[in-house]
Specification:
The structure holds 2 protein chains of 2 kinds.
Chain A (H helix, E strand, L loop, with lengths): L25 H5 L9 E6 L19 E2 L19 H10 L16 E6 L7 H8 L8 E4 L1 E2 L12 H13 L7 E5 L21 E7 L17 E4 L9 E5 L3 E6 L2 H18 L5 H10 L1 E2 L9 E2 L5 E2 L7 E2 L1 H10 L7 E8 L3 E2 L3 E8 L13 E13 L5 E6 L5 E5 L11 E8 L9 E9 L7 E13 L13 E6 L16 E4 L2 E5 L3 E5 L24
Helix pairs in contact in A: 2-5, 3-4, 5-7, 6-7
Chain B lengths: L4 E9 L3 H11 L2 E5 L6 E5 L6 E2 L4 H9 L3 E8 L4 E2 L1
Classes of the chains: A alpha+beta, B alpha+beta.
Chain lengths: 545, 84
Amino acid sequence: SLVVPTDPWFSKQWYMNKEIQQDLNILKAWNQGLTGRGVVISILDDGIEKDHPDLWANYDPLASYDFNDYDPDPQPRYTPNDENRHGTRCAGEVSATANNGFCGAGVAFNARIGGVRMLDGAITDIVEAQSLSLQPQHIHIYSASWGPEDDGRTVDGPGLLTQEAFRRGVTKGRQGLGTLFIWASGNGGLHYDNCNCDGYTNSIHTLSVGSTTRQGRVPWYSEACASTFTTTFSSGVVTDPQIVTTDLHHQCTDKHTGTSASAPLAAGMIALALEANPLLTWRDLQHLVVRASRPAQLQAEDWRINGVGRQVSHHYGYGLLDAGLLVDLARVWLPTKPQKKCAIRVVHTPTPILPRMLVPKNVTACSDGSRRRLIRSLEHVQVQLSLSYSRRGDLEIFLTSPMGTRSTLVAIRPLDISGQGYNNWIFMSTHYWDEDPQGLWTLGLENKGYYFNTGTLYYYTLLLYGTAEDMTARPQAPQVTSRARACVQRDTEGLCQESHSPLSILAGLCLISSQQWWWLYSHPQQPVTEGQASCHPPVTPAAAA
Amino acid sequence: QAPIYVSSWAVRVTKGYQEAERLARKFGFVNLGQIFPDDQYFHLRHRGVAQQSLTPHWGHRLRLKKDPKVRWFEQQTLRRRVKR
């Protein structure tokens, strides 16, 4: 007795209507009553057609702004060839209204959706920072399907203000739980681009999403890199079906393509998880996405088993995201302990780069001086380095962990003929998630191009992020959230109108209001007490060891 | 690719809005407001500066650098961003 939307184009939504055996498993989440209610998502792009018949009901003006013209209306600028349709298409994937007899259904069809118009004009660090920090206490998820040029020769990332916006988002946004930044991994496959040369997807604060075709193949536009977390469906070759969504001029389309189409699907699925457990932090959700992604039918030549037994690929991260699994895990997830950061300076004097060079480093310290280990389970691992090289794209850089997991930080990029090297660039890998950091880390640099290439490694620092808990030894927890009672009275926006604050503590349990329900949140190991400011352990910024 | 400078500056001042207003009046900028909610970072624009230039504006750079209340500033450059 599956609840299936009646929208006329739902039958075309092959990635979530059970037409294929292993789809995004969204029907399972919907059948548990999870539709994104109470969650707010904003699409940072070229605007949103707010009066679209499939978007207006969920449109949220508070989650919207126009940073191109500095006014509150994010309506796209209409042109003869509809070049500003991108944001409207991304928005419909997340939150197109269901059961209204129009187009298809969004993944989180009861979530509120906003749009930020910021790509249709001069883009500066200020514009990006303002967009990414719009209403951080109101917007839960920002979805971005853009970035630096995917031309296989660019190395570029967020400016200082945008980095600050990310940092503030995860530390202060969502009442301290951290806002979610969902990012499309890049379309530079044809140019042999690598998404680790994009500082947005490569950031620890974003959750980078790749694409697969209906057949489970690597699409022609897909970029491989170590920072990709997860994968959703999108287009492939011309005969492959594409993504169904809303389009400009109150239309529907079944022609949305590229990694742009993948990130909003993941954003919608994460909205379902947030409805299942509104107290998840930005790091909790990254842990959950790792666990709710499966290799499924995805084909790649580089699937490897990492040190904790998970399969991981540079094309797909941990694999195809499963909404049913994600919401099941969200309900039983106990909060992740605070994030710790360990910085290990490995090279700090200029060293000539040999044709094949290995830089080993034994990591034992990573403790706070009291022999207590700061990190037992890794999350992100970064390599920060400066080097010069005669032809940057010929240099492959890889990192092997003490548990033997090898991830490629940057593969060869034949079009990158720059002689500028990497200046203080940070490469990130998700492939060591939950591994124990103690032991021998080996950075490898290898010339894979012109024989006479030369270069110098000026410095290299290994940055380990993680937590003191052994995440692989977590017991299966009982459900941590439960619906306490239905909301009786709501205001015009659908929010509960009762005297309780949104987050209150009652007899050792947290009482949280979402739009539809009051939730009881219990934590068997850390019962909350009356007067405690938050139901969640403190979310502390990374402390350097 | 050479950076293209625009007529906008991000400026960090210690005492918030009043200080940003004073700075804007003193040097002829238009204060377009805070960059982050409730913070010390402000967006200033100068109408007398070329909207796009291959060189940073040395005069405003010097003036902002000399002002003791300015903790940090950056003339903005265009960023090439593509939809995916």
